[in-house]
Amino acid sequence: MTDVVFRGMDTPAQGETAPMPKVSHEATTQLTIDVEPPFTNYRGEKDQSYIAKYLGIEEGWNDKNVYGKEIDEIEQYFKDKIGRGDIDNTTEAVKETLKKYEKEIGYDKTERMVVKVQKLIAYLSFRRVVDEIERNSKIYGTAY
After folding, report:
1. Total domain count for the chain?
2. Is there a domain that residue 82 lies in?
3. Is 33 domain-assigned?
């Protein structure tokens, strides 16, 4: 026959307590998260335009003789959409909307940036009219 022994759980004696595990506070790690500011605050917090960053024209975007006027116009269009509640006040929402518009515009890969920006400005002008018609249709049941 085999000898089998069953042991009970070890418990500390009545006056003793179980030892506490030691916690070292020295080895803490610090986690930093870079959070994108809302679109409407992006220029003030990052000191650059999100639209210029998205289009890849970070240099010279603030020069009114180069792209400054166009960048301001594009930003104002999106600020208006955000103000009306059409899109969220995030750079991700603006990025997705810009991608959708670029697909509808149908950019040619060989086009220069000047042409792309001008096409985008013209398309946004068209979208303003369409958005106004849609808003009036929802409010009054008519486009006028």
Report:
1. 1
2. yes
3. no
Give the Cα separation of 89 and 95 in Å (integer): 11
**Can you give the pTM of this predicted structure?**
0.70
| Tens digit of each residue's pLDDT (9 = 90 or more) over 62-107 | 666 678 889 999 999 999 999 999 999 999 999 999 999 999 999 8
Long-range contacts, 68-77 (Cβ 8 Å, 24+): 70/117, 70/118, 70/121, 73/121, 73/124, 74/120, 74/121, 74/124, 75/43, 75/49, 75/50, 75/51, 77/124, 77/127, 77/128
Domain interval for residue 80: 39-140
Examine residue 117 and state whether it is found in any structural domain, yes or no.
yes
Residue with tokens 């009219």: 129
Is 60 exceeded by the pLDDT of residue 27? no
